[in-house]
Amino acid sequence: MSASHLAESVTPAAGSVTPAAGRRSSPLLWYGGTVLVLALWLAVYIGLRPAADALTGFLPVARESRLGEALAFFLYDTPKVLMLLALVVFVMGVVQSFFSPEKTRAFLSGRREGAGNVMAAGLGILTPFCSCSAIPLFIGFVQAGIPLGVTFSFLIAAPMVNEVALGLLFGLVGWQVALLYLAFGLGVAIVSGWVIGRLHIESWLQDWVRELNATGGCCRVPEDEITGVERLREGLASMREIVGRVWLWILAGIAVGAGIHGYVPAELMARIMGAEAWWSVPAAIGLGIPMYSNAAGIIPVVEALLDKGAALGTTLAFMMSVLALSLPEIVILKKVLKGRLIAVFVAIVGTGILSVGFLFNVLFG
Amino acid sequence: MKDVKVLGPGCKRCETTEAMVRNAAERLGIDAKVQKVTDYAEIARYGVASTPGIVIDGKLVHAGGLPREEKLEEWLTA
């Protein structure tokens, strides 16, 4: 957007000079700059803890008090989460510049179920995806003859196991939990998609989608040659966009997390969300469906819950259901799926998440 | 007269893309009819799987994400 501003300030006399010319800087500058910024990022990140502690020390509340606990959490977590998010989104933006929904579609079309489900779930992480283009993507996949179950594996994995979720889990809760989330999130997407495929319920798509399917025939999407510097720029652009879009969610999430941290007694949490209470997993999922948040908002809450002794399985089930099953998404899907298919989708994914929750509580309870 | 279609449901990026196309056409002094296509079935007919997409004179030139300013000018002047 700043680019268009820049361009508008160019006088008509200089109209033949494209704004691109002024911005075409040398690759060396870009790569060097990237390394420099990353080093700076690391230095600031390491210094966050002492800085936040010092800052809390200046506040007129005792560090050990409830308010002190909550404030310390908030002051340390806010910059930490934002910095981690910026880094993760930048790196993934660069990685995702190698992928596109169109390329993924071409790759998946003609794959059989089974292997297709596995590849679709994996590509769901790597392909740039936003929920606002979920419908065109869904239609595009079906139109290209990708089996319904494989399409669903992609659609389940993409919002649930995304770079923001993994990056923040890694940074805030630890790599073990991030890895478990990755493995089981993919598992849920693969198995749910496969089951939906087995049901052979293509007739439960809205009629107009099936008619499109019958006409078939897709055009080729042009592919740009893209340089390393342009990939970096793509990473920067997605960083600006995503951080700009979700920072408020993060603040809200951290505020809730801080509240839990300071005010919710640990034994209460253990009783409600502990491994002993078997009903807590379905309850957490039921609670998660109507809640709509994105990964960035939910993870500070997850961190606080785990810290207070909530069981890992229950907490991850909660997170998965918030991300993978949300009411707004269901409303959007209604345009392409008949109600029955949506019910099946929610039931199958819900069951998958439920199993993950129980399994974790048994394994790590 | 260029016939430009911006493919995309109501998302923010699609609106930004439409504005970028209009600005670029005006800046370059190109006579262009810019149209927004929001109907899912029609979007699907162009074969894109990601929006926003840009179609110029019936030819798909871009899909997914915001177009780059310099590319946009290239397509419009082609």
Please give a structural write-up.
The complex is a heterodimer of chains A (365) and B (78). With 365 residues, chain A is mostly helical. Chain A has a domain at 101-215 and 264-364. Chain A is built from 18 helices and no strands. The longest helix of chain A is centred in the last third of the chain and has 36 residues, at 228-263. With 78 residues, chain B is α+β, with helices and mostly antiparallel strands. Chain B has one domain (2-77): Glutaredoxin, CATH 3.40.30.10. In chain B, strand 3 (53-56) and strand 4 (59-63) form a beta hairpin. The model of chain B has no long low-confidence stretch (mean pLDDT 84). Chain A binds chain B through residues 1, 3-4, 7-8, 15, 18-20, 100-102, 104-105, 128, 130, 132-133, 135-137, 139-141, 143-144, 208, 212, 218-222, 224, 237, 335-336, and chain B through 7-13, 16, 20, 23, 27-29, 40-41, 43-51, 60-66, 68-71, 73. Chain B: Keywords: Disulfide bond, Redox-active center. Chain B: It comes from Afifella marina DSM 2698. Chain B: This is Small redox-active disulfide protein 2. Chain B: The active site is at residues 11, 14.
Key attributes of the depicted protein:
heterodimer; A: 365 residues; mainly alpha; 18 helices; flat; disordered N terminus; B: 78 residues; alpha+beta; Glutaredoxin; globular; THIRX-like_proc (chain B); Thioredoxin-like_sf (chain B); redox-active center (chain B); disulfide bond (chain B)
